[in-house]
Amino acid sequence: MGHWNCKNRFEAILSGEKADRPIVSGWMHFIEREQEAEDFAKATISFTKKYDWDWVKINPRATYYSEVWGNEYNFQDYRNVFPKQTHASIKKPEDLWKITSIKAVSSFPLIEQLYACKQIREGLPDTPLVQTVFSPLTILLFLAGRSPYINETVYGSDKPLSLNDLFIENRAGVHHALHAISLTLADYIEGLYNAGIDGVFYAVTGTAHPELFDESSFNEFSRPYDSIVLDAASRRKVILHTCGKHAHPERFNDYRIDGISWDTEAEGNLSLEGGLNVTKVGGIDHTLFASNDIKKIQEQASSALKIMNDHPFILAPNCSIPINASDEALWILKKSIN
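^ that's the sequence the OP posted. Answer follows.
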């Protein structure tokens, strides 16, 4: 390559090729600026320019996919990065059949995000952009007022349907809803690409944890619908994120993806040296940013870069950076790549 820039580094590294150097990025929620598309776009552009990230994982409000099918939230009341749920669309098993496929152009939450993506593209014309897309299984859990993370609850959801009522007693309805959600996401991704987005950050969240879905259940309720979405996304780059403890990144070795992100520091997970088939994205414990542990961030960045020296690599936090991260910690992340 005669001249390296952000875009061709991003393309090369996610094609399994080494560039002149690894690339780096960080992402966090802007909870005071995520309710309106234009304000969110401005926040994303400003954050990116300030730290000169090599690429952008667009990080919209965590609830916007469940809003597509009618969930409602109080955006004046947050717990961490989640606004309080005031209405769940799936309150009883029969509600599963009300989940239908929706065209992105007829859904306000999706129209809003497409507009935000266009604004971000205009503001960052030369920076690779990937939009966060939740898996259908993740979205279905939110629609039922359930968290896609083991031992966590949805703020404001007091009496969600049990997993047994959903996935054991009402399999047909679950498959109907998952199929509808996956078709909607596939249509939305087409809109993202038309808006100039360079790829998708596909989050299965914490659904790979065996105490939430064992491998057989995951294969039934996630894998077929992941395939529909990932097939739609495949003409551009896809990074898959599997979150938290026991996230099983190796489970996705046969997925149609270009990169994989997981928490290398969490219990039950592969280290950065683990055998995976696609470009690795991560290397730094995102929780270190909450405690402003500058020394440990530097140490982990240096170690990750050394381990991955002979491989294409994207240095990044293992998950979203906490909203109380210091300016100093973010600059340390950026400056890890010389």
